[in-house]
Amino acid sequence: MDDCTTITPLPLRAIGWLHAPEPSDENLLRWSFCYPSVELRTHHLHVVEHRSTGWPTWLAFRDHLRAHPELAGEYQRIKTELADTAADRPAYRAGKAPFIEAVLASITSSAA
């Protein structure tokens, strides 16, 4: 995606995705969507501009989880637990943050 301001959510809406803006979307040059509803989301999708400063980090995190299934399983466990216990989206994101930060620190230290 070259410019997130030109995205039209209609094709995603046609297959059940809802635009679900997050507080940092504009600064991170992304659009956020969820499925099947904002209140009961089971899937979350970000459409991100290539020039977003977050893009390389998000890809590195994704690729690291793909290469380390045990970490992917731990992340899934954390997310499942938070989905059942977190009071809201900010609490859910805050609950995932320590794991994400540890994985990113590991990636950074192994690249050095």
UniProtKB/TrEMBL annotation:
SUPFAM superfamilies, A to Z:
Nucleotidyltransferase
Question: Tell me, what's a Pfam family for it?
Answer: GrpB
Q: Does the keyword Transferase apply?
A: yes
- Residues in a coiled coil are none
On the tree of life, the source organism's domain of life is Bacteria
Gene Ontology molecular function terms on file: transferase activity
Q: Which UniProt keywords apply?
A: Transferase
- Name the chain's protein: GrpB-like predicted nucleotidyltransferase (UPF0157 family)
- Its source organism is Allocatelliglobosispora scoriae
